[in-house]
Amino acid sequence: MRFQDKVVFVTGGASGLGAATARRFAAEGAKVVVADINRDGAEQVAAELPDGWAVGVDTGEAASVEQGVADAMQRYGRLDVIFNNAGIDGQQQPLHEMDVANWERVRRINGDGVFHVLRYGIAAMLRGGGGAVVNTSSTTALAAQENISPYTFTKAGIVGLTRSAAIEYAARGIRVNAVAPTVVMTPLVEHFIDSAPDPGQMRRQMEAFNPKPGIPTPDDVAGVVLFLASDDAAWITGHTIPIDGGYVAR
Ligand SMILES: NC(=O)c1ccc[n+]([C@@H]2O[C@H](COP(=O)([O-])OP(=O)(O)OC[C@H]3O[C@@H](n4cnc5c(N)ncnc54)[C@H](O)[C@@H]3O)[C@@H](O)[C@H]2O)c1
């Protein structure tokens, strides 16, 4: 029960890694704000939790994030942990043929969105005297994959933003880290496989991605997020932790 009575704000909480992590925080005593652009999905996840609450938020829009954080503060009065996780995969195209609208959309949600949540979330957290943030990057930030340059750009940006925020707030009691998961079978990856030029080949590639055989589950990622958000990680800040079965060690 490491998060008894703590308030946790999870973006992308309606699905995949966010939903699994919201459930794990709740199982350890947290009050969980499930924030997602898919409000119905967020409400379904929040309804399963002992003390869960849904907010409809588009992380790519500063005003929407500001409102979502304000609503959470009004409901629970404080913010102790943020899992800054919402993201999309975007289209797969070679860089020289990249649809500019795709570039801008991925950058807006995966890049600007992570900034907006840090901007308004940390401001709220400071009022309570501190806390912990975990951002979701990707192994793509550490070892590139072809045809997803905007995704790679934003996920690598998160590594740097994590370091900036960590040193800016270390003395004010806020730790900021990131996780960099390898392929995890969530709706995002199912969409990624279906959008590939050869989905069958992409599925086989995804299933044999890491030196460690098999594919991690959303729960495998959630366990690391909870560790980084907990006092067990009191001296860890500014780091991006790969959850990759050895993928970036190759
Ligand atoms: N699944 C993987 O293999 C994998 C690997 C590395 C990193 N990631 C990252 O993990 C995060 C979660 O991915 P997932 O696999 O759980 O995907 P998912 O599609 O299952 O869940 C993503 C959630 O984010 C929400 N979302 C999308 N755009 C949003 C917006 N603008 N505002 C608010 N919510 C929004 C979606 O509605 C959805 O509920 C993403 O940042 C993704 O890039 C995933």
Report, as a whole number of angstroms, the end-to-end distance. 36 Å
Q: Helical element count?
A: 8
Tell me about the biggest sheet? 7 strands, parallel
Shape annotation: globular
What is the percent of helical residues? 40-55%
Q: CATH homologous superfamily - what is it? A: NAD(P)-binding Rossmann-like Domain
Query: What's the overall average pLDDT, rounded?
Result: 97
Q: Write down the Rg.
A: 17 Å
- Could you say which small molecules are bound to this protein? nicotinamide-adenine-dinucleotide
Q: Which CATH architecture is right? A: 3-Layer(aba) Sandwich
CATH topology: Rossmann fold
- Strand order within the widest sheet? 3-2-1-4-5-6-7
- Class from helix and strand fractions: alpha/beta
Catalogue the unreliable spans: none
What's the SSE pattern? EHEHEHEHEHEHHHE
Number of extended strands: 7
Quickly count the domains: 1
User: CATH class, please?
Assistant: Alpha Beta
Please summarize what this structure is:
By secondary structure, this protein is an alpha/beta fold. It contains eight helices and seven strands; from the N terminus they run E-H-E-H-E-H-E-H-E-H-E-H-H-H-E.
Q: How would you sum up this structure, described in words?
A:
The chain is α/β, with parallel strands linked by helices. The protein has a single domain (7-184, 219-243), classed as NAD(P)-binding Rossmann-like Domain (Rossmann fold), CATH 3.40.50. Helices cover 46% and strands 15% of the residues. α1 (16-27) crosses α8 and α4 (100-127) packs parallel to α5. The mean pLDDT is 97. The structure holds nicotinamide-adenine-dinucleotide. Nicotinamide-adenine-dinucleotide is lined by residues 11-12, 14-18, 36-38, 41, 57-60, 85-88, 109, 113, 136, 138, 181, 183-184, 186-189. Nicotinamide-adenine-dinucleotide binds at residues 11-12, 14-18, 36-38, 41, 57-60, 85-88, 109, 113, 136, 138, 181, 183-184, 186-189.
